């Protein structure tokens, strides 16, 4: 798979962003999908996961309520909606896909995108 993120930028606290991840080379409906982020000087952490089939979503406990992952199967695109952005959300945001849920759970998916930078600052 090839994954291409977009939609990041410089925003002020309290604003919202909708990140996109266009997937090519496979049908996203057949893959476990994930958004992760890497703040400056820190490791990569998962943000949201999407399980195919039942369409179940999961969010990191500290981020529940402000982040939403959803898919547009017709566009083969995964989105991450982020509301009420705070400076601590500043990070490079990545999407990832794998046919094995264990790879997603262990943060070792086969395919990662190049990332899109989100900077939250007043």
Structure, described:
The protein has 122 residues and is mainly beta. The protein contains one helix and eleven strands. Strands 2, 4, 5, 6, 9, 10 and 11 form a seven-stranded mixed beta sheet that branches. A four-stranded antiparallel beta sheet has the order 1-3-8-7, with no helix packed on it. The longest helix has 5 residues, at 101-105. The N and C termini lie far apart (37 Å). The relative contact order is 0.31. The mean pLDDT is 95.
Helix/strand order = EEEEEEEEEHEE
The helix/strand class is mainly beta
Label the overall shape: globular
Report the mean per-residue pLDDT as an integer: 95
Number of helices: 1
**In percent, how helical is the residue content?**
under 10%
Residue share in β-strands: over 45%
Model regions low in confidence, pLDDT < 50 over at least 5 residues: none
Total number of beta strands: 11
Q: Nearest-angstrom radius of gyration?
A: 13 Å
First-to-last CA distance: 37 Å
Q: Could you give a short account of the major beta sheet?
A: 7 strands, mixed
Task: Please specify the SSE layout and strand pairing.
Layout: E1 2-6, E2 9-11, E3 17-24, E4 32-38, E5 45-51, E6 56-59, E7 67-72, E8 77-82, E9 91-98, H1 101-105, E10 111-112, E11 116-120
Parallel strand pairs: 2-11
Antiparallel strand pairs: 1-3, 3-8, 4-5, 4-9, 5-6, 7-8, 9-10, 9-11
Can you give me a brief rundown of this structure?
With 122 residues, the protein is mainly beta. Helices cover 4% and strands 50% of the residues.
């Amino acid at each position: 798979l090839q994954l291409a993120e977009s939609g990041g930028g410089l925003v002020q606290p309290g604003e919202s962003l909708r990140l996109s991840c266009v997937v090519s080379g496979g049908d996203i409906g057949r893959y476990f999908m994930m958004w992760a982020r890497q703040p400056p000087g820190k490791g990569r952490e998962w943000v949201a996961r999407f399980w195919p089939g039942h369409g179940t979503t999961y969010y990191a406990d500290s981020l529940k309520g402000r982040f939403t992952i959803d898919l547009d199967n017709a566009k083969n695109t995964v989105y991450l909606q982020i509301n009420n952005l705070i400076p601590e959300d500043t990070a490079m945001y990545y999407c990832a896909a794998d046919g094995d849920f264990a790879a997603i759970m262990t943060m070792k998916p086969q395919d990662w995108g190049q990332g899109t930078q989100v900077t939250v600052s007043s």
